Structures are given as structure tokens and as C-alpha cells.
Amino acid sequence: xxxxxxxxxxxxxxxxxxxxxxxxxxxxxxxxxxxxxxxxxxxxxxxxxxxxxxxxxxxxxxxxxxxxxxxxxxxxxxxxxxxxxxxxxxxxxxxxxxxxxxxxxxxxxxxxxxxxxxxxxxxxxxxxxxxxxxxxxxxxxxxxxxxxxxxxxxxxxxxxxxxxxxxxxxxxxxxxxxxxxxxxxxxxxxxxxxxxxxxxxxxxxxxxxxxxxxxxxxxxxxxxxxxxxxxxxxxxxxxxxxxxxxxxxxxxxxxxxxxxx
Amino acid sequence: xxxxxxxxxxxxxxxxxxxxxxxxxxxxxxxxxxxxxxxxxxxxxxxxxxxxxxxxxxxxxxxxxxxxxxxxxxxxxxxxxxxxxxxxxxxxxxxxxxxxxxxxxxxxxxxxxxxxxxxxxxxxxxxxxxxxxxxxxxxxxxxxxxxxxxxxxxxxxxxxxxxxxxxxxxxxxxxxxxxxxxxxxxxxxxxxxxxxxxxxxxxxx
Lengths: 261, 205
Ligand SMILES: [Zn+2]
Ligand SMILES: [Zn+2]
Description:
The complex is a heterodimer of chains A (261) and B (205).
Chain A: E1 6-19, E2 23-30, E3 34-40, E4 59-65, E5 71-80, H1 83-86, H2 89-105, H3 113-127, H4 132-146, E6 168-171, E7 174-176, E8 187-189, H5 191-202, H6 205-208, H7 215-233, H8 240-252
Parallel strand pairs in A: 3-5
Antiparallel strand pairs in A: 1-2, 1-4, 2-3, 4-5, 6-7, 6-8
Chain B: H1 2-7, H2 11-21, H3 28-40, H4 43-59, E1 61-62, E2 69-70, H5 76-79, E3 84-91, H6 94-103, E4 108-112, H7 130-138, E5 144-147, H8 153-166, E6 172-175, H9 191-199, E7 202-203
Helix pairs in contact in B: 2-3, 6-9
Bound molecules: zinc ion (2 copies).
One zinc ion binds at residues 63, 65-66, 68, 74-75, 77-78 of chain B.
């Protein structure tokens, strides 16, 4: 009693799971309510007023009704559908990866405005044609931080000494120096890769996107962050395999069509 | 909670509830309701249901050309003399074939993928009949491939993926026109809209 039966919020669609004949359960991330799961009734029918506004990684204004077991989407109006992203397989793969990442690092009904802001900024940057690889690394690093896993990059995790410009080790919590005992969750990290991580950690997204990083170094950073995320989540992100597949195809310029069987 | 109710139920009934619960769109409550409904059903009717389930598994196969479900191989569409083998319409599910057939707009053949590329659900390109589509096109005799995946993100990504795979083979690729409402499922589209989307299909660059 007393609590409002409906509320307005904006949100981004992180997941869409079919339910029954024509419904879907949506997982949304919102600024004030964190992650929200809500039922979108009859959304798979073409006449649905919701369907065009609630596709994966759509940003929409929402009207949500409090339900007994599950909240219900009572209305939706698209703010941004990120059209350029949708029309490109590589950018789509990036966006899918981003929403999965945010899904894993956000909590239900727990306000996290910064994490929401991070996803909005990232999708806008992706749609605006920014360096997508650098962008993914930025979001990974900052999503870790906003979920309470900010890696320590300046001082050694074990002895606390300032990190020297030599090959050190990187693990889910940050860097350990060459002099300290080896921890099995860490791997060697090059000076250049550590520099990129520090730069991404210290800057806003628009500033970070100005970095002109060597693709090989970015490749190393990708591996380092992927391992950190896998260790923290205790699993691989499901979409990372597809992201890797499309990345390889894009790099080759064309796909090597599978051989007939 | 669900475990309690099942533990309090007789074992064969619990098993039936469990099986229903595995079906798409059936929650624990519906699974219970269905199971108790079956309990009250006359035995002859229950047998008819069980036989129908077994028969569908035993008699229905995938067409070796288009991978639609069929009771004869090749299926009736692939075997029909009056259908144009040079045009192939790619759809996600067998139900989409039915929806398109109702429009009478398309007189070519189909290719059923049995799903769509959906990384979040762990559905990868190799889980679909994409390699088989490539093999079909590579074998020759196909002039146009019409991509009729659902007009939503998952369907679009699947179409773009197939576009990449088929482009090097030099076949003409088209995609259903954007008249279809975004975000919906093809199988629910009305015939007029679907016919129009077919007639106005666009070439993919
Ligand atoms: Zn140390
Ligand atoms: Zn067939």
C-alpha cells in the first residue's frame, strides 16, 4: 500500500528471453533501479506497440508497472536505437558484448548511475564510429571499477612499491612487481600494455578515445582484461566467442567460407 | 519452493511435471496444472497424445535439401516441379515457411536455419544450418538468396553474418523490405505486410 504502482525510468535492453507464445522477459539496466527484469507482453506480435522500442541494446523511456512476481512494461518510447551499430555486424557484436558485460556487473534493484552512464556513453561512441577495440577495453576496465574491482596499476599489490618500467605481472586485482612471488592468477604484462591500462583508467571516455595505441599492444590489453574478467566472474562472457569470430573475419577482410562437407 | 511441491508429489507425477517444466514457456505452475489435467484424462486420450509425440519423433525428418521438417525426403516444396530452384529464401524456423507460403508471393525454395545467431544465448553460427546453405550455393544453380530472418537485432545479425559468408560466392543477396514492424517475429506478421516485404525486397551491397 502507498507505494506507487507504476514508475517511469529510462533503460537499455540487456537481454530478451522468450516466454510463452508471444511474450518476452526483458532484462534492462536503468540509472535509478539498477538492473530490472520486466515482462513485455505480446511483444513478438507485429502489432505490438512495444516491439520497435525494446530491441536488444535499445535505449528507451519506459513506463513500468509493479507486478506481483514480475514487473510489466506498460509503455516504451525509443530514445536511441544506435542505427549505425545495428547495420554493421562487427559493431553489433561489440554492442552485444557490452550489454552482456554490463548485465554481469550490475545488480538488480541497486542504483548504479555511473555504470548506466558508462553504457550510454559507450553505445553512443560505438555508433559514432570511435575506435571500437579501444572502446571495449575502456568499458571493461571501468565496468570492473564500478562493480568494485578497480585494478591497482601504480603500486605492487604485494609489497606496495612503485611499479618499475619492466615486465611485471597482471592479475584480476592489479599489478605485482617482478621482485614479488608469482601468483598463479597473474601473467606477465608488458610496459606498453600497462601504460595503456593506466591511461584508460585515468581518463574520461572521450579523452581516452584519443589514444593512438598500437593494435598489437591493444591485443595484449584485450587478453589481460579478458583473463581478469573471467577470473572475477568465474566464467567467460558468452558473447566473447562470437566477438572473436567476427573480429577475425573483419581482420581478414572477408570470411573464409567453410569448406563443403 | 518448487522442490518442496515436487517432493510432496507422487514420483511419476513429479516426473511428468519435471518434463513439462522443460518445455518452452512452461513455468512450474503451468507444469503442475498440465500434469494434473493429464491425470484426469481418459486413458485412451492420454495414449493418443503419447502416440502423437512418439510418431512426430519417428516419422518427421529434416529435408536433406532445405532442412525444413517433412515426412518425405526431399520435402514437397523441394520436390515440386513448378517451383523455381534458382531462388532460395532463408528463414529461421519451419513456422516461417508456413507464414511465407500463405502469402503465395514466393515460388522458389527455402532454407531453414533452425534458429538465429544469438551470442547471449550461446547460439553460434555453427549451431545453425549455415554451412549447409554455403554448400548449396557453392554447388551452383542458385541465382538469388533472399534473407528472411526476423526483423529484430538477432535476425539482422544473422542476415549480416550470412551476407558475409555468401558474398565471396558472388550470389545475388536480398533482404525483406523494412515494411515489417521492427522487433516482431516473422511468423506472426500478417499476409499483406509479408507479401509487400517480399515484393519490395532490397539488394544487399
Ligand atoms: Zn612487489
Ligand atoms: Zn526441402
